[in-house]
Write a structure and sequence with these properties.
835 residues, alpha+beta, 25% strand
Length: 835
């Protein structure tokens, strides 16, 4: 790339400053460059000499444009060590070192450019680019020069100058302001480029160590943070980013027959761009930056977006809200914004397009230069940490992908910039938000809410039909054995089609893959068995551990439960819900594939006399919290309200960090709109967790899950099962009755599992028991919602006193529910191990 750069520089013209022999005695016999002398480039573009800036009396060696008013100095040699009189002398010795000496013979500045070449005959040359170079005499090969002023820029950038970093030497080149108009010594402000391998380079204006403004990256045409700067058609201007193993830098090339251009960082921290008309010798300012409040760095905080259209310049991106509304004012938005709906890496999360933006700060972004925009979207979707993506290069057909892996900082709206940013949002936010730029009064260039809703409804309907078609074919496969393989192909193709449309993103596993992963369903890999069938552990070829739920031929569950899993849990992804990875339908086999939970299920710990001691109170309280958050998502925050209907200790799985995940959605029911309850003639679930209104009347709702949750909480606190519990004083009550009796007598502490030792907090334990009893009350309307439970666990809203719970006369696990109509059936008892 260096060859390309130098080919753009005009033909060099050699001007001998002075050369000296190696004998110090003969220096005086040679011509010296004294204060008052000047060297002018061949085309009289630049001049080298001594000057005093402004009203100052100090003298400096510098380069400036010739015959212009006012004088524009573009480089200063001795900016930190001025001459105090007119006795300056410039020398170039035989080693190729250019030095500035004061009247007493002291060197106050030098190029430090010595070479080991014994036959070195140095020549100093001032080029028409404004670059002062030292090279061998009569050599035009620019690669051989041993020093150039362009490597040591001051406050001014000239075309052809490189700003960046040399990875071999570690030297960084950047602009530093003058201290004042009368003092060229280094000031407080710098323009520096962020040059980190794997990152997309961009430029900042710094004040000491604090970022003041971000000029933003090059977008293929110009600096993205300076959209008002337009190139004049009478000349050719081009920005390039050069990246190789040796160095990384920006370079700006400029060609014109009658214009000259330069950029400067002023003593007050402004970047200015000026051009000179050679015919009129007048300077015209093309740009100054920052130009308004929105050019300040991160003025609107994380996920905040700045616009000068409104009086209040800051707002939040669509899908975001103020983080601390009471702390913010019109002049202080440092806290920024937060998501209205948090992300949980669900497959139905998507991206909202925002147009006409200055792209966010790329410090926390990763750059892939050869990715298309479509590939960029896929890469972001697959990375749960990715918050947004964009192609920073606006050149038509150009590749490039930026992936942001954290908060989006320093966003603003531009009316003259066409850069697009795709921000990750939860599925519920995509339904209500159109691709506008901001919330809070900023106008959008596009309004597409109706279009988005229509597209989502169309995709969802198509996906639903595809799943139903697959299930119908599956149900008929025994009647049409000859068409079995064809049916399998149709099911797979239908699923792939729906997946491509973005509704259900599940992998289709082949039977051979599952057989290899489980060692042909070896008994050693069997984790347990439930109503659906046996569950096996498997390991894929790439090393990923999975759990396989295999439909048993004798199972009373089947297609309905399979459908629920595919259409429900695949869409409802949350950190406290087990993740469904895919499925397998081949031959007589129907299987669901989940993420593997190494710590098995909750009941494996709390109902075992040996293992329950491993689960200390902080972990149990964390599990109580996590289950509540999972229910809150199912009942309120998910796109469809979901009633699990089989919440129990065996269906709470534990990951590596003992985080709880609700599993087994085969019996779940989904509600739309404002629906919250339904009737069924068939009661399903597990004895001991079923609510009284469901057991007696077949009426289930979100409050049915709350009842099951209350049972779970009391089981977690006590380490005892609700079913099979024996009270020494009353053999006719279960765990709920026992907990109520202790609460009524003021002895709730006696419910605590004795294996907890001293690990428990009295406040957390009593709060948990109180919440558990509130959740198992007889009347469903008396039970709290999941949102209230989460708040109460945090210590809020515990004023209500629980009423006598719904509990039944104790029987064995296989007995029907006591005190219930005899028509109720279908109750299942699952003994499923962790998966």
């Amino acid at each position: 790339m260096a060859q390309t750069l130098f080919s753009l520089i005009s033909i060099t013209f050699f001007l001998m400053l002075t050369t000296f022999s190696s004998s110090l005695d003969t220096i005086a016999t040679h011509q010296n460059f004294l204060d008052g002398d000047t060297i002018i480039s061949q085309n009289a573009t630049f001049e080298l000499g001594f000057f005093s800036p402004g009203s100052a009396k100090n003298r400096y060696l510098g380069i400036w444009y010739t015959n212009t008013t006012p004088r524009v100095v573009v480089w200063v040699a001795n900016r930190e060590h001025p001459l105090t009189d007119t006795s300056g002398l410039v020398k170039l010795d035989s080693r190729g070192i250019l030095s500035l000496v004061n009247g007493s013979g002291t060197i106050i500045w030098s190029s430090n450019s010595s070479t080991s070449d014994t036959n070195f005959n140095p020549v100093a040359q001032l080029l028409d680019t404004g670059n002062l170079i030292i090279t061998k005499e009569n050599r035009t090969d620019m690669k051989t020069f041993v020093w150039q002023s362009f490597d040591y820029p001051g406050a001014t950038y000239l075309p052809g100058m490189k700003l960046g970093k040399n990875f071999i030497t570690g030297r960084e080149t950047y602009l530093t302001s003058w201290r004042s108009a009368d003092d060229p010594s280094p000031g407080e402000y710098t323009i520096r480029n962020s040059m980190v391998s794997g990152k997309y380079p961009q430029a900042y204006i710094w004040k000491s160590s604090i970022i003041q403004s971000r000029i933003a990256p090059v977008n293929g045409r110009t600096w993205a943070g300076r959209p008002t700067y337009k190139t004049n058609p009478s000349y050719i201007a081009k920005y390039d980013i050069i990246v190789n193993e040796d160095e990384m830098y920006y370079v700006f090339t400029f060609q014109s027959t009658f214009l000259l251009i330069h950029s400067i960082i002023t003593p007050d921290g402004k970047q200015e761009v000026w051009h000179l008309n050679r015919k009129t010798q007048k300077w015209t300012q093309d740009l100054y930056f920052p130009s308004d409040k929105c050019d300040g760095y991160g003025v609107c905080g994380p996920y905040g977006i700045c616009s000068t259209v409104d009086y209040n310049i800051c707002g939040c991106l669509k899908g975001f809200e103020l983080k601390n509304p009471h702390e913010m004012s019109a002049d202080n938005w440092s806290s920024g914004c937060r998501r209205t709906r948090s992300l949980d890496c669900a497959p139905d999360e998507g991206f909202l397009k925002f147009s006409s933006l200055k792209l966010p700060d790329t410090q926390n972004a990763v750059y892939h230069r050869n990715m298309s925009l479509q590939e960029c979207e896929i890469a972001c979707k697959m990375n749960c940490s990715c918050t947004a993506y964009a192609n920073p290069n606006m050149t038509e057909g150009a590749l490039g992908c930026l992936l942001w892996l954290g908060d989006l900082i320093d966003l603003r709206v531009y009316s003259q910039n066409e850069q697009d940013l795709y921000v990750r949002l939860a599925a519920s936010e995509l339904l209500v938000n159109s691709p506008t730029a901001v919330n809070g009064g900023f106008r959008s260039r596009f309004t597409r809410t109706k279009r988005v809703i229509i597209i989502v409804i169309t995709i969802s309907t198509s996906a639903g039909l595809a799943v139903i078609l697959a299930l119908c074919i599956l149900s008929k496969r025994k009647r049409k054995p000859g068409a079995e393989q064809e049916a399998v192909n149709v099911r797979n193709e239908n699923h792939k089609s729906s997946s491509n449309k973005g509704s259900i993103e599940l992998s289709v596993f082949s039977l051979s893959t599952i057989c290899r992963a489980t060692n042909k369903f070896s008994i050693d890999n069997k984790l347990g068995e439930g109503g659906f069938g046996p569950v096996y552990k498997g390991v894929l070829e790439e090393g990923q551990e999975i759990a396989i739920k295999r439909l048993s031929k004798s199972s009373k569950q089947g297609l309905e439960e399979f459908k629920n899993e595919v259409t429900c849990i695949a869409k409802l992804q949350h950190r406290n819900l087990v993740k469904l990875l895919g499925y397998c339908i081949q031959g007589e086999e129907t299987m669901l594939i989940y993420e593997y939970m190494p710590n098995k299920s909750l009941d494996w710990f709390i109902f075992d006399d040996m293992r329950k001691s491993l689960l200390k109170w902080p972990q149990r309280f964390h599990i109580i919290h996590g289950i509540a958050r999972g229910l809150l998502y199912l009942h309120q925050d998910s796109r469809l309200r979901v009633v699990h209907r089989d919440l129990k200790a065996g269906n709470i799985l534990l990951d590596h960090d003992m985080n709880p995940k609700i599993s087994d959605f085969g019996l779940a029911r989904m509600f739309e709109g404002h629906e919250s309850e339904a009737n069924t003639k068939k009661v399903v679930g597990t004895l001991g967790y079923i609510s009284p209104e469901y057991a007696a009347n077949g009426l289930f709702s979100i409050k049915s899950d709350i009842f099951s949750y209350g049972v779970l909480v009391l089981e977690i606190v006590s380490g005892m099962k609700n079913t099979g519990f024996v009270d020494e004083n009353d053999h006719d009550v279960n765990l709920l009755g026992h907990a109520w009796r202790l609460h009524s007598e003021g002895k709730s502490v006696d419910l605590i599992d004795t294996t907890l030792g001293e690990s428990w907090s009295i406040h957390e334990v009593l709060r948990s028991i109180h919440i558990g009893l509130l959740c198992v009350q007889q009347r469903s309307e008396d039970r709290p919602t999941a949102a209230s439970v989460v708040a109460m666990l945090a210590g809020e809203g515990l004023q209500l006193s629980p009423k006598k719970p719904a509990f039944f006369i104790q029987g064995s696990e296989n007995d029907s529910v006591s005190n219930c109509p005899s028509s109720i059936n279908g109750v299942t008892v699952s003994q499923i191990d962790g998966r």
